[in-house]
Amino acid sequence: MDINIHPSWKNQLQSEFEKPYFKNLTEFVKAEYNTHTCYPKGDAIFNAFNWCTFDAVKVVIIGQDPYHGPGQANGLCFSVNDGIAHPPSLRNIFKELESDLDKPYPLSGNLEPWAKQGVLLLNATLTVRAGAAGSHQKKGWEIFTDAVIKTVSDQKQDVVFLLWGGFAKQKSKLIDPSKHSIISSGHPSPLSANRGYWFGNKSFSKTNSQLERVDARPIAW
Protein backbone atom coordinates (compact mmCIF):
# COMPACT_ATOMS: atom_id res chain seq x y z
CA MET A 1 0.00 0.00 0.00
CA ASP A 2 1.52 3.29 -1.11
CA ILE A 3 0.84 6.13 1.32
CA ASN A 4 -0.01 8.69 -1.36
CA ILE A 5 -1.36 11.26 1.08
CA HIS A 6 -1.24 15.05 0.82
CA PRO A 7 1.89 16.58 2.44
CA SER A 8 -0.25 18.66 4.83
CA TRP A 9 -1.59 15.42 6.33
CA LYS A 10 1.76 13.64 6.15
CA ASN A 11 3.22 16.36 8.38
CA GLN A 12 0.49 15.81 10.97
CA LEU A 13 0.37 12.00 10.86
CA GLN A 14 3.97 10.98 10.21
CA SER A 15 4.30 9.40 13.67
CA GLU A 16 1.30 7.12 12.93
CA PHE A 17 2.91 5.80 9.74
CA GLU A 18 5.96 4.75 11.73
CA LYS A 19 4.08 2.76 14.39
CA PRO A 20 4.06 -1.06 14.35
CA TYR A 21 0.27 -1.28 13.89
CA PHE A 22 0.48 0.77 10.67
CA LYS A 23 3.25 -1.41 9.27
CA ASN A 24 1.09 -4.49 10.00
CA LEU A 25 -1.91 -2.78 8.43
CA THR A 26 0.09 -1.96 5.30
CA GLU A 27 1.15 -5.59 4.93
CA PHE A 28 -2.44 -6.79 5.41
CA VAL A 29 -3.83 -4.37 2.82
CA LYS A 30 -1.14 -5.22 0.27
CA ALA A 31 -1.87 -8.95 0.69
CA GLU A 32 -5.61 -8.39 0.34
CA TYR A 33 -5.26 -6.31 -2.82
CA ASN A 34 -2.87 -8.89 -4.30
CA THR A 35 -5.19 -11.84 -3.66
CA HIS A 36 -8.75 -10.40 -3.80
CA THR A 37 -10.72 -7.66 -5.47
CA CYS A 38 -10.79 -4.77 -2.99
CA TYR A 39 -12.20 -1.27 -2.95
CA PRO A 40 -11.50 1.54 -3.50
CA LYS A 41 -8.76 1.35 -6.13
CA GLY A 42 -5.32 1.46 -4.54
CA ASP A 43 -4.60 5.01 -5.67
CA ALA A 44 -7.89 6.22 -4.14
CA ILE A 45 -7.46 4.81 -0.60
CA PHE A 46 -6.35 8.19 0.80
CA ASN A 47 -8.60 10.36 -1.42
CA ALA A 48 -10.38 11.88 1.59
CA PHE A 49 -7.07 13.50 2.55
CA ASN A 50 -6.05 14.47 -0.97
CA TRP A 51 -9.27 16.25 -1.90
CA CYS A 52 -9.40 17.99 1.50
CA THR A 53 -6.05 19.19 2.84
CA PHE A 54 -5.44 19.46 6.59
CA ASP A 55 -5.38 23.25 6.45
CA ALA A 56 -8.74 23.33 4.62
CA VAL A 57 -10.73 21.14 7.04
CA LYS A 58 -13.87 22.91 8.28
CA VAL A 59 -16.29 19.98 8.50
CA VAL A 60 -15.77 16.27 9.26
CA ILE A 61 -18.30 13.58 8.26
CA ILE A 62 -17.54 10.10 9.62
CA GLY A 63 -18.61 6.94 7.80
CA GLN A 64 -17.85 3.34 8.67
CA ASP A 65 -16.77 1.27 5.65
CA PRO A 66 -16.26 1.90 1.93
CA TYR A 67 -18.97 0.65 -0.42
CA HIS A 68 -18.17 -2.93 -1.44
CA GLY A 69 -19.89 -3.09 -4.85
CA PRO A 70 -18.15 -2.70 -8.23
CA GLY A 71 -17.19 0.86 -9.15
CA GLN A 72 -18.82 2.47 -6.12
CA ALA A 73 -16.13 3.43 -3.59
CA ASN A 74 -13.95 6.42 -4.43
CA GLY A 75 -12.19 7.03 -1.12
CA LEU A 76 -14.73 9.51 0.27
CA CYS A 77 -17.35 8.31 2.75
CA PHE A 78 -20.91 8.05 1.35
CA SER A 79 -19.61 9.15 -2.09
CA VAL A 80 -19.74 7.20 -5.36
CA ASN A 81 -18.11 7.80 -8.72
CA ASP A 82 -19.96 9.69 -11.44
CA GLY A 83 -22.43 7.50 -13.32
CA ILE A 84 -22.90 5.05 -10.42
CA ALA A 85 -26.40 4.56 -8.98
CA HIS A 86 -26.80 6.23 -5.60
CA PRO A 87 -26.76 3.71 -2.70
CA PRO A 88 -29.67 3.97 -0.22
CA SER A 89 -27.78 5.98 2.44
CA LEU A 90 -26.62 8.52 -0.13
CA ARG A 91 -30.16 8.84 -1.49
CA ASN A 92 -31.38 9.67 2.01
CA ILE A 93 -28.55 12.19 2.49
CA PHE A 94 -29.60 13.92 -0.72
CA LYS A 95 -33.30 13.83 0.24
CA GLU A 96 -32.47 15.55 3.53
CA LEU A 97 -30.33 18.06 1.63
CA GLU A 98 -33.31 18.76 -0.66
CA SER A 99 -35.71 19.47 2.19
CA ASP A 100 -33.19 21.23 4.45
CA LEU A 101 -31.81 23.69 1.90
CA ASP A 102 -34.58 23.59 -0.72
CA LYS A 103 -32.09 22.38 -3.33
CA PRO A 104 -32.74 20.01 -6.23
CA TYR A 105 -31.70 16.38 -5.76
CA PRO A 106 -28.10 16.09 -7.10
CA LEU A 107 -27.50 14.14 -10.30
CA SER A 108 -24.01 12.99 -9.33
CA GLY A 109 -23.26 11.02 -6.18
CA ASN A 110 -19.62 12.13 -6.30
CA LEU A 111 -18.95 14.26 -3.21
CA GLU A 112 -15.57 15.61 -4.34
CA PRO A 113 -17.04 19.16 -4.57
CA TRP A 114 -17.80 18.98 -0.82
CA ALA A 115 -14.27 17.75 -0.06
CA LYS A 116 -12.69 20.55 -2.09
CA GLN A 117 -14.52 23.06 0.12
CA GLY A 118 -13.11 21.62 3.35
CA VAL A 119 -15.37 18.67 4.16
CA LEU A 120 -13.29 15.69 5.31
CA LEU A 121 -15.32 12.64 4.24
CA LEU A 122 -13.66 10.06 6.47
CA ASN A 123 -14.49 6.38 6.65
CA ALA A 124 -13.28 4.70 9.86
CA THR A 125 -12.01 1.81 7.69
CA LEU A 126 -10.47 2.88 4.40
CA THR A 127 -10.55 -0.41 2.46
CA VAL A 128 -12.87 -3.41 2.02
CA ARG A 129 -12.94 -6.73 0.17
CA ALA A 130 -15.45 -6.85 -2.70
CA GLY A 131 -18.87 -8.04 -1.54
CA ALA A 132 -17.78 -8.41 2.07
CA ALA A 133 -18.86 -5.49 4.25
CA GLY A 134 -16.64 -5.01 7.29
CA SER A 135 -13.96 -7.40 6.01
CA HIS A 136 -11.11 -4.96 6.74
CA GLN A 137 -12.34 -3.79 10.12
CA LYS A 138 -10.20 -4.28 13.23
CA LYS A 139 -6.98 -4.56 11.20
CA GLY A 140 -5.62 -1.18 12.25
CA TRP A 141 -7.55 1.31 10.15
CA GLU A 142 -9.67 2.41 13.11
CA ILE A 143 -6.55 3.22 15.15
CA PHE A 144 -5.33 5.39 12.29
CA THR A 145 -8.61 7.20 11.64
CA ASP A 146 -9.16 7.78 15.38
CA ALA A 147 -5.74 9.47 15.35
CA VAL A 148 -6.91 11.58 12.40
CA ILE A 149 -10.03 12.74 14.29
CA LYS A 150 -8.02 13.49 17.44
CA THR A 151 -5.39 15.40 15.44
CA VAL A 152 -8.06 17.57 13.82
CA SER A 153 -9.60 18.20 17.24
CA ASP A 154 -6.26 19.00 18.89
CA GLN A 155 -4.66 21.07 16.14
CA LYS A 156 -7.62 22.99 14.73
CA GLN A 157 -10.40 25.26 15.98
CA ASP A 158 -14.10 25.65 15.12
CA VAL A 159 -14.49 22.48 13.03
CA VAL A 160 -18.02 21.07 12.66
CA PHE A 161 -18.19 17.31 13.26
CA LEU A 162 -21.25 15.55 11.81
CA LEU A 163 -21.83 12.30 13.71
CA TRP A 164 -24.50 10.29 11.92
CA GLY A 165 -25.54 7.09 13.69
CA GLY A 166 -24.33 5.18 16.72
CA PHE A 167 -20.94 4.22 15.29
CA ALA A 168 -20.01 7.82 14.45
CA LYS A 169 -21.32 9.11 17.78
CA GLN A 170 -18.77 6.90 19.58
CA LYS A 171 -16.08 9.16 18.09
CA SER A 172 -17.28 12.11 20.15
CA LYS A 173 -14.83 11.06 22.89
CA LEU A 174 -11.99 12.08 20.53
CA ILE A 175 -13.37 15.59 19.98
CA ASP A 176 -12.95 18.61 22.27
CA PRO A 177 -16.45 20.17 22.48
CA SER A 178 -15.05 23.39 23.92
CA LYS A 179 -13.27 24.08 20.60
CA HIS A 180 -15.56 22.47 18.05
CA SER A 181 -19.23 21.93 17.17
CA ILE A 182 -20.74 18.44 17.21
CA ILE A 183 -23.99 17.85 15.31
CA SER A 184 -25.44 14.36 15.87
CA SER A 185 -28.36 12.53 14.31
CA GLY A 186 -29.47 9.07 13.27
CA HIS A 187 -27.75 7.32 10.38
CA PRO A 188 -29.01 7.94 6.82
CA SER A 189 -29.40 4.21 6.19
CA PRO A 190 -32.97 3.11 5.35
CA LEU A 191 -33.26 1.19 8.66
CA SER A 192 -32.60 4.33 10.70
CA ALA A 193 -34.28 6.80 8.33
CA ASN A 194 -37.51 4.81 8.13
CA ARG A 195 -37.73 4.80 11.93
CA GLY A 196 -37.64 8.59 11.97
CA TYR A 197 -34.05 9.04 13.13
CA TRP A 198 -32.66 10.78 10.03
CA PHE A 199 -35.06 13.03 8.13
CA GLY A 200 -35.47 16.54 9.47
CA ASN A 201 -32.09 16.64 11.24
CA LYS A 202 -31.06 19.76 9.20
CA SER A 203 -27.37 18.82 9.40
CA PHE A 204 -26.52 20.96 6.38
CA SER A 205 -28.14 24.22 7.42
CA LYS A 206 -26.93 23.75 11.03
CA THR A 207 -23.37 23.24 9.75
CA ASN A 208 -23.47 26.41 7.68
CA SER A 209 -24.91 28.38 10.60
CA GLN A 210 -21.99 27.24 12.76
CA LEU A 211 -19.46 28.15 10.07
CA GLU A 212 -20.98 31.58 9.57
CA ARG A 213 -20.93 32.11 13.34
CA VAL A 214 -17.11 31.90 13.26
CA ASP A 215 -16.83 33.90 10.02
CA ALA A 216 -16.00 30.85 7.91
CA ARG A 217 -17.35 30.44 4.39
CA PRO A 218 -20.40 28.13 4.38
CA ILE A 219 -20.36 24.95 2.32
CA ALA A 220 -22.14 24.97 -1.05
CA TRP A 221 -23.67 21.54 -0.47
TrEMBL record:
Chain ranges of the Uracil-DNA glycosylase-like domain: 50-211
Record keywords, A-Z: Cytoplasm, DNA damage, DNA repair, Glycosidase, Hydrolase
Main location: cytoplasm
Entry annotated with the keyword Ribosomal protein: no
Coiled coil (UniProt feature): none
SMART domains documented for this protein: UDG, UreE_C
InterPro entries, sorted: UDG_fam1, Ura-DNA_Glyclase_AS, Uracil-DNA_glycosylase-like, Uracil-DNA_glycosylase-like_sf
GO cellular component: cytoplasm
Catalysed reaction equations from the record: Hydrolyzes single-stranded DNA or mismatched double-stranded DNA and polynucleotides, releasing free uracil
Organism superkingdom: Bacteria
Protein name: Uracil-DNA glycosylase
Organism: Gelidibacter salicanalis
